[in-house]
Amino acid sequence: MNKRDNNLSSERRSFIKNSAMLAGGLALSNLPFYGVYAAGSGAIKIALIGCGDRGTGAAFQALSTTFNVKLVAMADAFRDRIDKSYEPMFTKFGKEKVDVPEDKKFVGFDAYKQAIAEADVVILTTPPGFRPIHFEEAIRQNKHVFMEKPVATDAVGVRKVLAAAEEAKRKKLNVVVGLQRRYQKNYRETIKRIQDGTIGDIVSGQVYWNSGGVWVNPRKTGQTEMEYQMRNWYYFNWLCGDHIAEQHIHNIDVANWVKNSYPVKAQGTGSRAVRVGKDYGEIFDNHTVEFVYADGTVLQSQCRHFEGTQNRVDESFQGTKGKVYLSANNAGKLWDYKGNLLFDHAGKGDPNPYQVEHDELFAAIDAGKYKFADAENAAKSTMTSILGRFATYSGKEVKWEDALNSTINLLPDTFAWDAMPKVLPDAEGNYPFAVPGKSKVI
User: Fold this and answer.
1) Is the pLDDT of residue 27 over 80?
2) Do 45 and 170 fall into the same domain?
């Protein structure tokens, strides 16, 4: 399992018309002036915001494209993460592609603003709770974006991303989101056949992300509560959104892609059954959700963090004329209900979808084309996973409209090392967590 998923660009230069645009009859004076990277104007400058393992991996992939790209700035709340990320990149690519002097390594909660100002393209890979703020700033500064999923941890953040996504479209800024199944060949080919009607209308489905869980970073003497939570971001909803959002969003997004729509309501159950105690913050270790779409389609969603049990990460759907099975390991199969195999993608040799995301994004930027607007869909699939969390935390049926309009903001009121998050431990170090039937989620 890729580490990305497991227990895993001062305003820019003036917008310059390229010859193809002019040949198409567009006058320079009629075009928006947004400072977007000009095709053929030199190296595409990259800033990395969030220098953990996933951010480092994303930067490696950006630098591994065939285009003239250069990492020029880095930002993280923690200096040690910048250092740990910088060294292997510089070792592999050298100064020609990794040119980040000390004064371009920005540290702290506001470091992202300075790093964004240095580049043409920003890679946003901090813990998800910061994504709405960082994405909004990147679009304000007129930058193309690659950002990781999920793109928010609460409905307030989702609405912020949706607003910034509209602005990105207006400015024709390319945005790619790390829901890499949408860039994976077996998914693209199989789902195209589904949407072409090969197995009829989809009426039900099952999606899974069942695994043993992820890392824990023990509390260290002298850590403030803010630092502890950020070092253990996976276990706090303001940072992570729970694993139904952080990991299971991949499978949920596939369902939304197959249906070409989003659920109207959800109900489900979840708990802390195995991964309990202070080390696991406030999140659940299992969620089972029934999502219902407007046409009545029911999607069964299951994710869990139980060590020693069956791991499963895949998706199945049933249509009126047949069924489909999908998984990350090159599987893409369609059958009719007589057992006849209608399509089998296996053995076609798919390229790495994590690399394809960057190859296609930088190809568009290098060519001066506007092709990618992933943020809206990513925000809605993020909202779908949050809808599922609302359902499992409350134990009640929750409607999409009510969930999306929630005013509960999980983020701290202030970002500083001595500031307090909204969820705090008791005297024994245990954190409060949701109790179905009692907890308010909207």
Assistant:
1) no
2) yes
